[in-house]
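Support reply, case 0932

Customer input (verbatim):
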Amino acid sequence: MDLDVFIERHSASWQRLEKLAKRPGRLSGAEADELIELYQRVTSHLSLVRSQTPDPATVERLSSLLAQARSALTGTHTPAWKVFTRFFTHRLPAAIYLGWRWWVPAGLAFYLVTGIIAAWIASSPDVQASIAAPEELREMTRVGGGYESYYSSDPAGSFAAKVWTNNAWVAAACLLLGALFAIPPIYLLFTNALNVAVGVGLMFGAGRGELFLGLLAPHGLLELTAVFVAAGIGMRLGWQVIDPGKRTRAQALAAEGRSVVAVALGLVVVLLVAGVLEGFVTPSGLPTWARVGIGVVAEVLFLLYVFVIGRRAAQEGETGDVDASEREDVVPVSA
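Our regenerated output:
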């Protein structure tokens, strides 16, 4: 094979491939097809040169050209740190924000139910007696009793880890079991409301309610909000089974399910913060106002994260789903 004649015959194709490879994001459909065709053609050219006249300069030229074209065809790799950063600045807050119409009402209903049951328990000795024997109630509500000493019952680190693990399981159950027609999240919310109401009601009945709220607020505000988010997003997932809209149920559950995974991963971090507060701040020797203040600051920061950063990300088109390149193709439907 005469190398000079071969180069002269195919140099136009090589130049065209180089031109197309330099602007992959601005190609028309026909140009993209041409890029693929030229890439395959030049690959065969490189194979011929290597096998018949392995000229180093030509091999290097074609290898570099094919590498550039391959990058244009497959796209560039996004660094892991950019994926990680985008997850916490766009995907996660948008997913939580877009579900606020579910989890905010869930939280309000939780506090309403908790307040009603707690007031009923606090004002009714008969109800208190049905919960436990008088001796057990005194032991739980006395100074240094069960409710007060619970937060310092284990070393702070192990207690925080135990609380984090337990709350993460509750949140995961709310999120993943929500597909069962949204029933499990509602049940889990109610049982948690009942548990909190019993503690609040008994302590207020014993005249020590403010102390109990002072112990609950530092970690409870953020912890409960995370549970509300999990329950609300889980219920929204379950609603897709009932009313998937214009999508098939499989498509709706797939799209919502990917957002649920994003929320689940994010809530692990949120609940870790709540666990640290419960293990180190709640039982600390800080005055009540300082402990409660720390809890309020953590809660406000989370809400700002969702309703400022998340709202902005949602307005930019973020949905909490994975990128379009990572989703399955679907057939368009009419509006």
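We compared this against your earlier run and they match. Two observations from our side: Residues 209-242 form the longest helix (34 residues). Residues 324-335 have pLDDT under 50 and may be disordered. Please reopen the case if you see a mismatch on your end.
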